[in-house]
Design a protein that fits this description.
Blueprint: H1 2-11, E1 16-18, E2 25-27, H2 45-81
Antiparallel strand pairs: 1-2
Bound molecules: zinc ion.
Zinc ion binds at residues 19, 21-22, 24, 33, 35-36, 38.
Amino acid sequence: MNENQDNLIKDIKESECYCRDCGAIIKKEAEICVHCGIRQSSSHKSYLDDVKKLRSIIIGLIAISGSVVFIMILVWILDEIF
Ligand SMILES: [Zn+2]
């Protein structure tokens, strides 16, 4: 039983991977498993990375504009006092 499983693992090619749902050998670039029709998560990774990058850029911009507004308010308050 274990020997058969080892052979299966060795049989997998560079361009192939296992379906995350049914475990069948499918092409790495395949978006959907031909055996069970489940969409593979690997194809979404780059998209998720882009979303994460975009989100960190937006957060950075908000932080920068927020601190600029804070400094402007601080200068305005100090100008009002003195
Ligand atoms: Zn599958």
